[in-house]
Amino acid sequence: MTGVAVTVACLVLTGCSENRDGDSLARDIAATEAALLDDDLGYRNRVREAEYIAATEISKKVAGSGSTIRREPLGWSGRTAGSEQATIDVRFVVTVAEQPGVSFGDLGNSAGRATRCYRYLLELSRYTSHHEIDCPAIATPAVPTTSPIPRLPDDGRDRLAAALRAATPDTLAGTVRAAFPEKHITVDTVTHEGALVAAVGVPAERDCILLVRTPSGAIKSPGYDRIWLEPGEMGCKTGLYVSPPR
How confident is the prediction along the chain (246 residues), in pLDDT tens digits per residue? Predict the structure, then answer.
């Protein structure tokens, strides 16, 4: 039989394809997915509990071509705050379906399955890192839950405007604090050239409302560069209006 005839027979009968071991392929897919999750978790610029991150940023199922990929948070501890570190362990369960080669040189694969586990380390103002760990014997892992993130109230601007209208220079600080009694909200006030100035915010979330009651009684919202709310900058202070950074 000539070489051409062999090639034709090969294409007709088998497609001249080879099968890759499905378990090996599943292991490689799990490693790739672990690296993709590392990219997704990325740079951490907010204070968050590890459980919150596990509940909100780790999708449970990922679509794959010819495969099913399941992500399972197994455990978590710590938080991304200051020099603290959040740790999240994730199990990747990958199932691949049999894929026969369909053309000349096409590499098909047998059915397969793999389970691999990775630990993710997250710190404030740093990129996420990860490494493989032995999978613990946890048949049904606990489901992470979330707690509300501290934020300014939806009616915060109206609250602050009302407080400024009711305040005098002597009562300014107390009136604004009474309007925002929540412990996670910072309050900064000052009287400047006859104007009442107040800034209320949640520093960790870069949330800030800055309002001014002018000597004529008008309520104004002065603009400022939001970069000044970042860690190490002025933050949510009346200085954003009185003495803005240059």
Answer: 444 443 444 444 444 556 788 899 999 999 999 999 999 999 999 999 999 999 999 977 776 666 789 999 999 999 998 899 999 999 999 999 887 766 666 678 888 999 999 999 999 999 999 999 999 999 899 999 988 889 999 999 999 999 999 999 999 999 999 999 999 999 999 999 999 999 999 998 999 999 999 999 999 999 999 999 988 899 999 999 999 887
Angle among Cα 21, 24, 26 to the nearest 5 degrees reads: 110
Range 70-96 burial, b when 16+ CB lie within 10 A, else e: ebbbbbbebbbbeeebbebbbbbbbbb
Pairing outcome for strands 67-77 and 207-213: unpaired
Is the CB of residue 206 less than 8 Å from the CB of residue 235? no
CA 33/CA 46 separation, integer angstroms:
24
CA–CA separation, 81 vs 96, rounded Å?
39
Largest Cα–Cα separation, the chain: 105
| C-alpha distances in Å from residue 109, one per residue of 11, 25, 231 | 18, 8, 51
What pTM value is reported for the model? 0.73
CA pair distance 60, 57, nearest whole angstrom: 9
Look at the block and give the residue holding tokens 């209320």: 200
